Recover the amino acids of this structure.
């Protein structure tokens, strides 16, 4: 490899398309003779539909059909169900019966010639219900926690309760994190078009092969009859990992009216029906010696779920490996409520669990009278004590050292309310971040064309991190080509399968597959060349030739060599390489693999009106090899801004009487905007991890959000002396009385 494209801070190769309108999103793929579908949503939280008067709207202008549970097709949903990934949720049912399970559940679909006509009829459709009172508040006495079905058993080492009782210093605190919605810019949208028993879906998805599998299964047709296309995603953060029932509805509508149908969810409908970060209630109890050695860690957490599905996330898993402690207990529960099912949202689980753990550690640092970074240093583990395995690499302390230096941590006076800037109370806070370094099975195809271009195809997605660019870099580097000679395509279900575009594993999984496929293509090209009389390497053994800047030559030969294109021309066809890769199970069994980070925040709190502003933030991450520092920085600062939202703004509010979301719009559901953001910086400490995967990458998407909220909450305590354990932190929480 001589091009060294990996590690270069290249601008996005799809940037121009995105800013000139060349990038097409799901709703942009308008088809000829397109009809428009609009969902009618339930206006009760629980009960059944007692009447829908389709006749009242069927003759309104432009209306083509009204689909309800009474006339919707009964779909088989049995063939090929096994190919759906259960990890993201398998329920795709729509209009199956007269039951209403949550406020906003679809009860009908209007299909009309124009969007206006469909919306008019949807607003006019008479629906009545037999309603009962839903249980939507965790504090409702009828809400009963349950043990999750699988994979989240209580985990204990030592005697955490006993050690806590004996501890010299104790913290025992409760945390409450609000439900959040993903709120991406691009709404969920699907255009469905049938051609006989073949279906094309232009659909917003982070997982096109799984959407293909799910929709094929529910309609009982072979997966190869369904094509899902999604070349661009306007933000998602997890909300498009699973196929929600509106995709089924779009496909049903298109089959009913026998023409292509476009269905776009309204912003309001997205809040109700496309998942959310579950509200969580947690308790963290820490026991320690006066010297700051942890003797007990107890972490209990409950996350809301729906009554019809169990959604679980990694709320407590990081607690077992973050710090050294002999006595650790984690206990995870679910709280089924009459709401829609939550889903993964950036830093799923870890961002909520780490908030509680890292705030409790900050409290402990004050209880002991020790600097919070020093407290973490004293409890830095040598191995993952939960799994009893070495870390493949762990550079948390290096992150703290680098960050403390850059942030000027040494100048911080520890006393709360000790720093002022005029009327503003200033506080500095810190917290750790972590996220697992996964690698999921992926495949890839590389095609070396006669014109010298290398085509690379994977059914991956790019929801914004820069997958197009980073994967092009991996292919270019492996093939020894300039990036201009690589064409990378993603977002089609007929490409070689990729895992879901989530869990921070796209770089590790898809990148490894592309690297392997590029090497397979090189092998094939070399095989062709040595057998080709016209080739300068004719007659050589394949292990006597080498690649140099995309050209093949005999080892030790100083000539430029034969380029890929020439070999393909001679072969009379493109040279292809395919690969399927996954993590070596042996390595996976031997090492604990995670990314780590240290996050610093400075807040300014107005003493009179209680407004909180993050004036400065710095995230220092150790995430293995960084493929593109420019995109990685952008990825991390974006995640940190999401963390500001979690800490100070984002909260989906339910009406406890009926489960209606009362702020299901961008005026009242607050997300950070430019004016909320001051100085945000991300930095990476060099980390060479030979175990995680051949590229040495750990992934960055989730960890970027994980430590931000606790760093801010700890800074708010430093500024005000008020320990706020609920998110988001509101003005009324910090108003000094
Ligand atoms: Mo991310 S929550 O895995 O899309």
């Amino acid at each position: 490899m001589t091009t060294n494209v990996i590690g270069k801070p290249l601008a996005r190769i799809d940037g121009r398309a995105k800013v000139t309108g060349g990038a097409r999103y799901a709703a942009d793929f308008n088809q000829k003779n397109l009809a428009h579908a609009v969902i009618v949503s339930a206006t009760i939280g629980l009960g059944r539909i007692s009447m829908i008067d389709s006749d009242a709207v069927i003759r309104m202008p432009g209306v083509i059909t009204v689909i309800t549970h009474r006339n919707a097709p009964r779909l088989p949903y049995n063939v090929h169900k096994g190919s759906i990934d259960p990890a993201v949720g398998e329920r795709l049912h729509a209009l199956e019966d007269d039951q209403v399970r949550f406020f906003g559940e679809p009860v009908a679909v209007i299909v009309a010639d124009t969007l206006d006509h469909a919306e008019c009829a949807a607003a006019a459709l008479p629906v009545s219900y037999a309603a009962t009172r839903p249980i939507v508040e965790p504090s409702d006495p009828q809400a009963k926690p349950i043990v999750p079905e699988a994979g989240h058993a209580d985990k204990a080492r030592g005697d955490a309760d006993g050690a806590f009782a004996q501890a010299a210093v104790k913290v025992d605190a409760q945390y409450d994190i609000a439900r959040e919605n993903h709120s991406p810019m691009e709404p969920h949208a699907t255009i469905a078009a049938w051609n006989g028993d073949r279906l094309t879906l232009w659909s917003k998805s982070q997982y096109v092969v799984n959407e293909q599998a799910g929709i094929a299964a529910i309609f009982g047709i072979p997966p190869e009859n369904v094509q899902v296309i999604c070349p661009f995603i306007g933000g998602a953060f997890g909300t498009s990992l699973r196929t929600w029932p509106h995709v089924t509805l779009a496909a049903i509508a298109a089959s009913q009216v026998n023409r292509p149908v476009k269905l776009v969810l309204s912003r309001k409908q997205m809040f109700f029906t496309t998942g959310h970060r579950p509200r969580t209630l947690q308790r963290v109890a820490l026991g320690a010696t006066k010297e700051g050695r942890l003797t007990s860690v107890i972490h209990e957490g409950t996350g809301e779920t729906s009554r019809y599905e169990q959604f679980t996330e990694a709320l407590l898993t990081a607690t077992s490996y973050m710090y050294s402690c002999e006595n650790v207990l984690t206990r995870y529960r679910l709280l089924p409520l009459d709401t829609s099912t939550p889903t993964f949202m950036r830093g799923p689980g870890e961002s909520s669990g780490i908030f509680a753990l890292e705030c409790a550690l900050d409290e402990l640092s004050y209880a002991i009278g020790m600097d919070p970074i020093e407290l973490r240093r004293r409890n830095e583990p040598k191995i993952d004590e939960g799994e009893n395995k070495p870390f493949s690499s762990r550079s948390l302390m290096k992150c703290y050292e680098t960050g403390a230096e850059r942030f000027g941590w040494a100048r911080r006076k520890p006393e709360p309310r000790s720093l002022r800037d005029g009327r503003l109370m200033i506080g500095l806070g810190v917290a750790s971040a972590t996220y697992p370094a996964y690698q999921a099975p992926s495949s890839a195809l590389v095609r070396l064309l006669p014109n010298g271009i290398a085509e690379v195809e994977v059914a991956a997605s790019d929801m914004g991190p820069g997958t197009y660019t980073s994967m092009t870099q991996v292919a270019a580097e492996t093939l020894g080509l300039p990036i201009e000679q690589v064409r990378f395509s993603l977002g089609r279900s007929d490409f070689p399968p990729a895992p879901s575009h989530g869990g921070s594993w796209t770089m590790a999984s898809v990148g490894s597959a592309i690297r392997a496929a590029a090497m397979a293509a090189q092998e094939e090209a070399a095989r062709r060349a040595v057998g080709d009389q016209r080739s300068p390497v004719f007659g050589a053994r394949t292990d006597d030739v080498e690649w140099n800047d995309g050209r093949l030559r005999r080892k030790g030969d100083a000539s430029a060599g034969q380029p890929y294109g020439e070999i393909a021309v001679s072969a009379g066809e493109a040279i292809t390489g395919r690969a399927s890769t996954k993590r070596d199970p042996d390595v996976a069994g031997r090492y604990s693999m995670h990314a780590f980070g240290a996050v610093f925040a400075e807040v300014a709190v107005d003493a009179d009106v209680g407004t909180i502003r993050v004036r400065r933030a710095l995230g220092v991450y150790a995430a293995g090899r960084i493929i593109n520092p420019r995109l990685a920085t952008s990825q991390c600062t974006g995640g940190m801004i999401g963390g500001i939202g979690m800490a100070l703004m984002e909260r989906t509010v339910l009406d406890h009487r009926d489960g209606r979301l009362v702020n299901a719009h961008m005026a009242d559901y607050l997300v950070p905007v430019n004016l909320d953001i001051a100085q945000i910086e991300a930095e990476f400490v060099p980390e060479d991890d030979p175990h995680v995967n051949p590229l040495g990458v750990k992934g960055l998407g989730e960890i970027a959000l994980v430590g931000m909220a606790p760093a801010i909450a700890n800074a708010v305590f430093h500024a005000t002396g008020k320990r706020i354990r609920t998110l988001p932190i509101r003005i009324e929480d910090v108003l000094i009385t």
Remarks:
- The CA atoms of residues 136 and 656 lie 6 Å apart.
- The two ends are 64 Å apart (CA to CA).
